[in-house]
Structure formats: C-alpha cells, structure tokens
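testing teh design pipeline on a random one, pls ignore if ur not involved
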C-alpha cells in the first residue's frame, strides 16, 4: 500500500488531479472541465467519480492520506472559495466542507500560487529554503510568499497578492475591479496589451502589427522578440523592468533568499529573467544588494497538482 496525497488544482477551464507520494512522484493523474456544471455538488460528484475510477484502475494499491486543493480566491482559514470571477459558482463556496463529505481525510485549500510555493519548497528548487517567493506568470500574475518556513496568509488567508499591487495610478482596468494593478501589465494578457499600446505609438514595421488581439499570444511576442522585432523586444523590456521594480519593494518587506518565476511567460528565457534580475538589483535597498536570486521554478509539468499535494505532505 502506497500512501499518497490527492492534489486537486481547480482552474478556470480545467480541473487537474493527481496522487503524489512523499517523494513527489505523480502516481496517477486526470482532469475534467471545470465549467461543465453550474452546480458545485454535480461538479464534485463527477470529480470524485473520476478520482475513484482512476484509483481503482491504478496498478498500485493507493491509500489517500489527505486532499490538498489549489483554487482561485481560496481561503486557507475558512476552507472556502470567495467570489472567484473565473468560476461559475458565485458567492462563498464551502469547498472543504463539501469535499469532506466525500472522503474522510484531512482537506486543505489555498490559492493556486500559494500551493505552487509549497510545491517548490517540498519538491522543487526551494528545498532547504525557508524564505522565498514564487511568482506565477500566466494569464494573470499569482504569488506565494514563504516566510520562516510558512506560507504568508495574513488575517483572512488572502495575503501576498503581489499581482494586485497598484503600479500605475488610474492605469489599466483589472479584473479585480481596480485600475493599475501589476497583473494588468505583467502577465500574458498584460504583454498583449503592451504590444498594442506600443504599436499605436510607433509607425515602424513589426510582424505583430497585423495580428488581431484575440489571436495574439505571449508566446508569439516572445518568438518575435527573439527574431529581433523591435516592438516585441521593447514589450518584454517594459514588462520585465516593471516586475523587477515591484519585486524590489516586496523584498523590502519579506527579505527572501530567492524569487522563483514560474508559468508561460518564463519561456521567454533570458529576455525576461535578465532584465528582471538587473532591475531588481538596481532598485534594491543597499542592505539586500547581491543577496537575492531570481531563479526558474524547479517544478515539473504537474506543478499545480504537486503544489496542491504538498499542502498535505508539509503537515507530515
């Protein structure tokens, strides 16, 4: 019998689950559409039917010792998802309570970026570190901050939202309802918005000029930059410098040993990492200079599930 933690990552499009052993090995994995059911009970019935089927069909005998869940707007303290804009279930959803009705083991929930940080600590490149942060760069910008070995939750479980620090007064509209949040500039969506801002400013040639906004991707921008497209290169410089400046402020509060970048935007490689690190170092308080590493995440393709499962293994 192999003891495993069940990791569940609830995304806006898909929910991914997996059974992870103590070493971080993914024994099995599966997924289902998140938005298929408007009713949370129907969604959970389907999810746990798929999980039970996968466990039964596994070549190994598995014992689930706990369930870790990563979800948007999830509170570690209350076990609820609170008004997640990209999920169909509105208001306060008592997810931990509902999951415990289906499986009699410890259940823990937090937001996906916090889960990624714990996954980095147990199974990734932050092993042995007690003070670090993980910045997830996807459609939005998430952040998980570890201080003295523990995730930073704050009073209500929602602390550490670096993506919603305001960087431009009355700037770009954000999905949170405010304006000028970092996420609107430093994310895959933010990169697209910057491209079109720069295209409007410059009259020169760019291979991005004739691509409709709905078809443009951050990957396309990165590829264009690598081919020397000036608008694409300026976009990544602008994005990276803004992230570096904000991280310098966060360092002044949390004093991390390292900052890990994770997600689709990191595929831009040195075009992102180098200016982020240079701007960070330039903007740091003198007492922190030369001490903060900017590193790529050490998690695998199953990062979301590993992070969710790590919430359970961290308690063992």
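output:
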């Amino acid at each position: 019998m192999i003891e495993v933690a069940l990791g569940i990552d609830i995304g806006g499009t898909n929910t991914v689950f997996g059974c992870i052993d103590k070493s971080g090995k993914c024994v099995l994995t599966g997924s289902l559409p998140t938005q298929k059911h408007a009713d949370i009970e129907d969604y959970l019935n389907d999810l746990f039917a798929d999980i039970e089927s996968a466990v039964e069909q596994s070549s190994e005998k598995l014992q689930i010792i706990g369930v870790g869940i990563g979800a948007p707007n999830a509170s570690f303290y209350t076990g609820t998802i609170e008004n997640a804009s990209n999920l169909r279930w509105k208001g306060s959803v008592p997810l931990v309570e509902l999951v415990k009705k289906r499986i009699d083991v410890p259940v823990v929930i937090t937001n996906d970026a916090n889960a990624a940080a714990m996954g980095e600590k147990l199974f990734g490149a932050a092993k042995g570190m007690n003070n670090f942060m993980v910045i997830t760069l996807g459609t939005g910008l998430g952040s998980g901050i570890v201080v003295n070995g523990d995730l930073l939750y704050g009073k209500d479980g929602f602390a550490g939202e670096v993506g919603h620090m305001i960087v431009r007064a009355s700037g770009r509209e954000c999905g949170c309802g405010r304006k000028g949040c970092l996420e609107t500039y430093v994310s895959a969506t933010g990169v697209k918005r910057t491209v079109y801002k720069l295209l409007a400013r410059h009259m020169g040639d760019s291979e991005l000029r004739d691509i409709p906004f709905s078809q443009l991707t951050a990957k396309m921008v990165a590829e264009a930059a690598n081919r020397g497209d000036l608008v694409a290169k300026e976009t990544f410089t602008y994005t990276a410098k803004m992230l570096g400046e904000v991280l310098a402020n966060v360092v002044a509060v949390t004093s991390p040993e390292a900052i890990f970048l994770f997600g689709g935007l990191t595929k831009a490689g040195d075009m992102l990492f180098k200016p982020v690190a240079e701007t960070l170092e330039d903007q740091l308080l003198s007492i922190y200079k030369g001490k903060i590493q900017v590193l790529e995440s050490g998690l695998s393709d199953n990062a979301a599930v590993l992070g969710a499962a790590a919430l359970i293994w961290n308690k063992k």
